[in-house]
Design a protein that fits this description.
With about 400 residues, the chain is of the alpha+beta class. About 50% of the residues lie in helices and about 15% in strands. It has 3 domains: about 5-110, Acyl-CoA dehydrogenase/oxidase, N-terminal domain (Butyryl-Coa Dehydrogenase, subunit A, domain 1); about 115-210, Butyryl-CoA Dehydrogenase, subunit A, domain 2 (Beta Barrel), CATH 2.40.110; about 235-390, Butyryl-CoA Dehydrogenase, subunit A, domain 3, CATH 1.20.140.10. Strands 5-6-2-1-3-4-7 form a 7-stranded mixed sheet. Strand 1 (about 115-130) and strand 2 (about 130-140) form a beta hairpin. It is globular and about 80 Å long. It starts with 9 loop residues before the first helix and ends in a 5-residue tail after the last helix. The relative contact order is 0.12.
């Protein structure tokens, strides 16, 4: 049992294992199509994994963040793109727990297995309108938009809008009210289909909008609608997202290590003329494997520590303080950095064959490099926040 596994996982393990062959079979198609294959997303939906994080009041599993992280890590080994879509959209399904019952019923009432795409970064503008808000702008990195009928996006108040109210909002809206702009031509994570979306003066009713501050801090008044389950939705949103994201990267790094070990056990040393297994007998190669294993294991333990903290928040039914939030963000960022270091270490010793486009190790390398560029696991930002919290420095 690893640091992410608990008794809860047994309820979902069969579902996870059942989708792995389908994700593996469609991995190349996801990569080539620059969007997770329909067959892969359908498998996730059919096995109930799309609703792991959907509130139980709306037909979801209402699972812990740990369960989602474990599922993301396992599925990332088979198909990083499909796992990424499940992770990002599942995180948004979880955030929906802070929205009104009317909003959630509208989204999940006819489809309890839907995945909510979108982007949490506030990249557009809103202004007050009768009965709601009008939103315009362009949002990047909308992972899984091809597979989702609903979007969650963040925006800031238009400077020219002088009405009273929050300065930042997150809103839910149907995908057919936005334009999808296919900008996703990237180094890695190609199959995530993280395209841009564009809104032009789209009306959002009041019940589908929430003030970002309370929503992200787990203090939305709608959290209490979930009764005994309310503690699940009190975790800080960015800590939750960053932990789930690190879980995805952990799965990719685990797969890279497995691929490297499998190839290196029988890899010959071409220039010396030594045959099968020659590379595996080199002390430097043995050290490379051991150090990568150490980095990946340390990352797993740090992610597991975050999951312990989420469990504690859920049990206490109280939002986390700023010190705990800083710690969780840093755990996620550092764990992702450890995984990237391990993958870079292995790829550097993988030989010329790993440079081909059809090499699974090349894809693992590209995907991890790309995934660790996500702002939620930014090492510089995460270290600064953690350092300030430890030294008692007030944020600027």
């Amino acid at each position: 049992m690893n640091a992410l596994e608990t008794q809860e996982m047994s309820a979902y393990q069969a579902a996870i294992e059942s989708v792995l062959p389908i994700l593996t079979a469609n991995r190349a198609a996801s990569e080539a199509g620059r969007s997770a294959a329909v067959e892969s997303i359908t498998a996730l939906r059919d096995q109930g994994l799309a609703r792991l994080m959907t509130p139980s009041r709306n037909g979801g599993q209402g699972a812990s963040i740990r369960a989602q992280v474990h599922a993301c890590a396992e599925t990332a080994r088979a198909c990083p793109a499909s796992s990424w879509v499940m992770m990002v959209c599942g995180a948004h399904n979880w955030i929906s727990g802070g929205f009104s019952e009317q909003c959630r019923e509208e989204m999940f009432g006819s489809d309890q297995d839907l995945l909510i795409a979108g982007t949490l970064a506030g990249q557009g503008k809103f202004r007050k309108a009768d009965g709601g808000w009008r939103v315009s702008g362009r949002w990047q990195y909308c992972s899984g938009v091809d597979h989702s009928p609903w979007l969650l996006i963040g925006s800031f108040r238009d400077p020219e809008d002088t009405a009273k109210g929050p300065n930042s909002l997150h809103v839910m809206l149907p995908r057919d009210e936005v334009e999808v702009d296919d900008t996703w031509h990237t180094l890695g994570m190609r199959g995530s289909g993280s395209k841009d979306v564009v809104l032009d003066d789209v009306f959002i009713p009041e019940y589908r909008a929430e003030a970002t501050g309370k929503l992200f801090n787990g203090s939305s008044p709608h959290v209490l609608d979930h009764g005994e389950d309310c503690g699940i939705y009190m975790a800080p949103a960015m800590c939750s997202l960053s932990t789930q994201l690190a879980g995805c990267i952990l799965g990719m790094a685990r797969e890279m290590l497995s691929l490297y070990v499998e190839k290196t056990r029988v890899r010959a040393d071409i220039y010396s003329g030594k045959g099968s297994g020659a590379k595996a007998r080199m002390g430097t190669v043995q050290s490379r494997v051991a150090e990568a294993y150490g980095e990946i294991t340390a990352a797993e333990l740090m992610i597991g520590r975050n999951c312990d903290m989420f469990d504690a928040i859920a049990a206490a039914k109280a939002p986390a303080d700023m010190t705990a939030q800083a710690q969780m963000r840093w755990h996620s960022a550092y764990a992702a950095g450890l995984c990237r270091s391990a993958v870079e270490r292995l790829y550097a010793g993988a030989g010329a064959h790993a440079a081909y486009n059809d090499s699974p190790m090349q894809q693992c390398f590209r995907d991890v490099i790309m995934a660790t560029h996500h702002a939620a696991v930014d090492l510089d930002g995460g270290s600064e926040v953690q350092g300030m919290a430890m030294l008692g420095v007030e944020p600027g």
